[in-house]
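User: I would dearly like some help making sense of a protein record. I have put the entry right below:
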Amino acid sequence: MSRVLIVGAGLTGSLCACLLRRELQSTVRIVVWDKARGAGGRMSTSHAPDASSQSADLGAQYISATPAYARTHHRFYSELLSVGLLQPLDCPIEGLKDHEGTENYVTPLGTSSIVKHFLSQSGADLFLEHHVTGLYRRGASWEVERKAGASETFDAVVLTMPVPQILQLQGDLGQLLSVQQRQQLEGVVYSSRFALALFFSPDAVVKVPWGAKYVTNSSCIRYVAVDSKKRGADAPGRGPSLVVHTGVPFGLEHLERDKEDVQPVILRELHRLLPGLPQPISIKCQKWRYSQVQTSVPDCPGHMTILDEPLLVCGGDAFTHSNFDGCVESALSMLRVLKAKFA
């Protein structure tokens, strides 16, 4: 049985693992490594330390399905709706610019619940805090090195982390890239931003008329959500949660500063915008160096094959576009490559 390593436990990696299991269950053993302490990637859900507050989505906020993707990806939307991991957005989002026919969905259990669902369905061996540092070709296999722990050998490797992290890998990857491939990868551009999650006690009340709002009168904050309200996830005995995303120019300006130094700046602006905000019991700050893809790999089928034997393929939203359906497209694209190899 061939061993396939998927690097990155975000949406693309988890769905790719799930589809592999469903299509090639008897021929491949799937292993997923992620450098973080939890699965989700940029679909990250954070929890208050004492569980007295609702959780908060620090990354993706909601999923927008265009009519075209609602048709072509119907099976994925249908699956997630049927198990209660998606539900229609039914609270107001001020400033949301919708295209005609677009359906918006939220995740009652947090966006990371979608990733965890696909990982569970995949039956993959998931290893967290496994930070890949190098790839070395060893005949018909790949030797994969990580920051701490012994290297391991795989018959195929799928890379789904942000492109700059792919380009930083040591070993044989650099010499295998063609000039055109390297230029395409180096041309990928990401936006950067900071995100805050504020957790409140059960008796706290956040008095705003919206579930989320796009902010237009701030050079710092671009988006605020009462996350529990936005997700329709209010529960008795648990306090509300608030999510704040900075604008991209602010994120870029402060990108190299420690997030502990940036957090007070964001909080001051938040209290200017929402002066009656109660005191949180806990705050988490996240720096998204690679937030959303602004410039993707051009004319790309959803993946890039670096080597056919042993197979090395890259995927993710940098090879499509930066949303749920872009990740689905990339996972499907990589599945076709893997099926051609192992079916």
Q: What stands out?
A: The CA atoms of residues 158 and 256 lie 29 Å apart. The radius of gyration is 20 Å.
